[in-house]
């Protein structure tokens, strides 16, 4: 190598990026290039020849580094040609920077193989190293990120699978719509519930499900809630494809994008028809009786309370009828519970149609029912309702081949007269019902507050009269008719008396009007006439053979077609000659339809029975009519007779009647004669017969016989 070449080589090495060092076999520096001086911030001209690393790097490299440099130098000496070793170390260089250096060391030998020294090539690999670290860090970060993403993806995938499964298999119907409410997706349950498939409704607004059960306000609130809270939940009625309306529980949620705009709506609904049905059933039976399906006590009380509250404003009247079957236990005991149950059902079925729209019927207990009559007008309406129940029960029930008769006791209380409390109303009616049970008289009874006494009395009388007829409690008392000319008892009037089971005697004024109203007068009169006719035979046997008995006949009776036949039959039974019976008919009633009554009387009189006009003078008879009637006697009304001694008008009337009767060939009876002066006066005027307390009050059969016997001796006595 020429010097020129050596110089080029030196320049080349000085410009290289690596540090090049040559050391002698004792590791003393022979050569180093410029980068070495630059690294250690040394003067280029410093003489380093013969110096060791320890000399140069004192204060820069640590003891440990220096010994490492030395040991690798030694090792490099042992390497074969072409081999090298490397060493990496960190060094804080005089400028304060820490650099990472990598040195390659190899031996330098001559041709014979003798060691000339070692060569060291050192590079600053700091940058490389930090890039490498960066790469490693990036790699790690990426790996981590990848791992995480993979996990998320896996989870998401699993979730998605899961959600898909839920979406497909849930029993809730799900519909997903876009932000405008147009259907995008539905699940099978939605189809199951509504009947619609996705193909049929894709792009449609679910309002096709609307039932018209809810008003616009309802849907307005729904959308308002969705807009403000993004959520709505509630129950609503929708329409299936089949047209059927069904209840459902629905919740709708809005779905938002990252900017907070609504992108979708999800509606989840479940069909609660079955639930509703069960709920309704439970609800129904907690307020109804399972046997008859009638409201139970609870519902009845609620309704009653509501009606009473309402009527506090409207003034509507309410009657409560508490009804208890008589001897229902016997039906159960003898025929079994199934028959008993059926009886209750049929009974409810008979009463229900009697109710008005406002009224209600309930089963309160085993055989206890209650009716609330709302808005009745008069007490009579309640009475006729209670009577109708009686009529409904009068025909037997036919159950499983049995014919069952059943009665009910009904207690009645009214609002607001008896009480304003619904509980009290029921209690009062119950009390009244128990009175019915213990009285054995009537079928129904009012709770007796002061106001009800009269109505109650009438009801009591009605049922008592019916029972009295059956038991023959109506009997005749007799009041004598005495001849003015002979003083002889010519006959007697049979006057009805009601002898109650307790022995009390009730006068006709208290029961005849009611019996007439109830159309029972015929039965009463028949009892009296039959008994009177029978008693006649007793007196005849006692020797009183020419008496005529008078019986009172209500004009109402004359109307009945079989009236005459009935009288004939009674006479026939006892073989009493028809001439021995006289019928008294009041003037006022007779005059109501003279033509017709004349016909009826004709048939009686032509048979021999005689007829008298009772209470004559009070009925404004026209005399021409009087002539048409086949009558034999006029009975002057008591009111005229009473005052003949003091009232000139009455006297004049009585005298006129007597004289008129004489001219017409009629007999005259004066009734209500109480003293001898009256007898005298009447006799002087030509009155034929006297009836009154002066001779006798109406007497019982045995008393009357005594009376007759007592007068036997006086018969020819002049009064
Ligand atoms: P009437 O047919 O005018 O009977 C006469 C009434 O006068 C009887 O009242 C009798 O007791 C009463 N009387 C008789 N003498 C005197 C007297 O001297 N002084 C007074 N103050 N009163 C006297 P009674 O028995 O209470 O009967 C009342 C009415 O009831 C009868 O009036 C009659 O219309 C009706 N009645 C009585 N029994 C029957 C009957 O069996 N059937 C029908 N349909 N009506 C009857
Ligand atoms: Ca009479
Ligand atoms: Ca009379």
Can you describe what's shown?
Helix 17 (521-541) packs parallel to helix 19 (563-574). Helices cover 46% and strands 24% of the residues. The protein starts with a helix and ends in an 8-residue tail after the last helix. The longest helix is centred in the N-terminal third of the chain and has 44 residues, at 126-169. The strands form five sheets. An eight-stranded mixed β-barrel has the order 18-19-21-22-23-24-25-26, surrounded by six helices. Strands 2-1-5-4-3 form a five-stranded antiparallel sheet, with helices on both faces. It contains 26 helices and 26 strands. By secondary structure, the protein is α+β, with helices and mostly antiparallel strands. Residues 479, 495-496, 507-509, 512, 521, 525, 528, 552-554, 584, 614-615, 638, 671-674, 691-693, 698 line the site of ligand C2E.
What tags apply to this protein structure?
single chain; 719 residues; eight-stranded mixed β-barrel; binds ligand C2E; binds calcium ion
Strand order of the biggest β-sheet: 18-19-21-22-23-24-25-26
Q: Strand share of the residues?
A: 15-25%
Indicate the low-confidence ranges by residue numbers: none
Helical coverage, percent range: 40-55%
Tally of helical runs: 26
Strand count, sense and closure of the main sheet?
8 strands, mixed, barrel
Shape estimate: rod-shaped
**Computed structural class:** alpha+beta
β-strand number: 26
State the end-to-end CA separation: 208 Å
Mean pLDDT: 90
